[in-house]
Structure formats: structure tokens, C-alpha cells
Amino acid sequence: MPKPEAQAAADPEAAEPEKGASWYRHRNLLGLILFCALFVGGFAIHGNLGLYFNLAGLMIILGGIFGAAVISFRLDRLMLVCRVLKSSFRKKVTEPEDIVEVLVDLSLKSKFHGLLSLEADGAETTVIFLRRALGFLVDGYPESQMRELLNTEMVFFRLRRDEIERVLIALADFSPSFGLVGSVVGLIGMLAGIGDTAIILKTIPVALTSTLYGIIFANFVFLPLAAHLRELTNRELLLQKMIMEGVIAIGSDLHPRILEEQLKSFLTPSSRDVKLVSIERIREKFQIQPSDMSRMADATESSSEESEGMMLKQHKGAADTDGNNH
Predict the structure, then answer these.
(1) Helix (H), strand (E) counts: the chain
(2) What is the pLDDT of residues 69-120, one digit of tens each?
(3) How far apart are the C-alpha atoms of 210 and 129, rounded to whole Å?
(4) CA 269 to each of CA 86, 261, 273, 276: distance values in angstroms, whole numbers, following the listed order
(5) In this structure, are residues 96 and 105 in contact, taking their beta carbons and an 8 Å threshold?
(6) Angle at Cα 299 formed by Cα 318 and Cα 143, nearest 5°?
(7) What values do phi and psi take at 114, rounded to 5?
(8) Closest CA to 260 of 271, 246, 248
(9) N or C terminus: fewer CB in 10 A for the chain?
(10) Does the predicted TM-score (pTM) go above 0.70?
(11) Following DSSP, what letter does each residue of 225-267 receive, concatenated?
């Protein structure tokens, strides 16, 4: 039975959210409700809100948009768009800081328990990219092959998301066109009953509301959804890049503190000021003795001194070369 702390380390979504995290995750929803209320309120100020609803115009718009979508794209592609959008609004947003903490924890665990101990973490995590990366690491894949496989997965992940975004942009392009179709239908009906006031009053709303619906669906539904998906894709690609570099660094036996500083370069400057991994939490979580921590600190200092020594030798060699040339 896996320990709860191990599961939280492998999967930030399994960890208990901090206070205020719920408000942070739902801020977009609250903003959407607020601005939708303002948007609808603008219609209500100038008269009865029911004046802007026309069933015939709505049927023309929806039937035209989704009819064109079925002709343009396979049905399974359209279903995939629905699933991805549903998942994008329902799942918790993983922060880059969480990924840094997870990777540093895994690095510490590999230091004291070996790389094979990460197999259980890979099986428990719900982050598929992290699961695959840890699987490659535990199976002993060389660094070059791991990087190639993970980069390939990132490329095709981006291509799949681009296809979904292309569907949404196409729906946005269809919407105003079918709004114009609804307007033409309304005008034809109006001209057909030019001598009958009742027919004119019945068909004019179809012409006007169809154009309104087309503009709203394009600019308030499909284009914002495409932009939302693009932002989410860029964020997930950033997390995948962090995971790839972190797992490869773990495989190369990089010190956890150095790994933490390396991964902080992916964060914004304001997020780098916080120390993500504390000594107390490391000792408590992995039951590490102070002597072990001292040995790890000595190893870090020695590696830093070796790096500085190599740099000094390089500078000295360059200076000697310049002197000989002169």
C-alpha cells in the first residue's frame, strides 16, 4: 500500500490544497459570471430581454454551424474537442512550483533509496508525461534516447492540440456566415409579405437576431475557447519541459539543490524567491539522519569547488595562450 506522502510527492494533484487555493482555481469562473452579467445587463437596460431571443434565428445558426462542422471534420475529432474542453475546465491546474517540488522530492528519494525506488512513484502519479519519463529512467534508457522520446511526445501533443484549436477557429469562422444566412432568410420572408404587416413584424427579428447570434457565438464562445486551449497547451508544454529536464537530471545524479536551482529558471522571478524545499521537510519525509545531510552538503561543496577549479584552469590556459601569441 503506497504511503500518502509518496503519492503526494509523485502527484501534486493528490496533495491537499492549501488555504485559498480553491479561490485561486475558480477566479476565472467568477470573472466569467461577473462579465456575463454585465454583458447580458447591457441588453436588458434598453428593453425587454426577451426581444433578443428568436428561436428561428437560433436554429439557423446552430444548425448551420454544426452541420458545417460535421461536413468539415470527422465525428471522433469533434467528440475529442468536447472531451478536451470539458477536461480543461474540470481538472485542477498544476502549478510549475508544484512540479519543481515533486522533482526535487524524487531526486532526494533516488539519492537515498536508488533509482528503482521511483518505479512506485511512476505507477501512482496521474501525470502521464511524468509517468512515462520515470518509466524510461527506471528502465535504464540513455539520456539521448530519453530526450528524443520525450521531445517527440511533446511535439505530437502540440500537434494534437493545434488540431483541436483549428476546429474551434473554424467554428468561429462559420458563425458570422450563418448569421448572414439567417438575415437573408428573414429579408426574403419580409419581402414575400411586403403588403402584410404581421409577416414583416414576424420575419424582421429573424434577420436581425441571426446576425447577432453569429457574432456572439464567434467572439464570445468559439474564439475565447480556442484562446483558452492555446494558453493551457503552452502551460502544459512548459510543465512537460520541466519534467523532461528534471528527470534527465535525476538520472545524471545531479544534486537535488542544484536541480532545484536549475528548475527555478523556468519560474517567474517572483516565484523563485520562495525556498521550495526545506531541510526539515526533507528529514521528516525521508527519515534522513543529520549525518547523511552533512555528507550531501559536503558533496555539493566539493562539486562546486571542482567546477570553480575547472573554470580557473580554463581561464589560466586562455591567458597563457594569449601571452604566447603576443
Answers:
(1) 15, 0
(2) 999 999 999 999 999 999 888 877 788 888 888 888 888 888 877 888 787 7
(3) 44
(4) 32, 12, 7, 14
(5) no
(6) 75
(7) 90, 160
(8) 246
(9) N
(10) yes
(11) HHHHHHHHHHHHHHHHHHHHHHHHHHHTT--HHHHHHHHHTTS
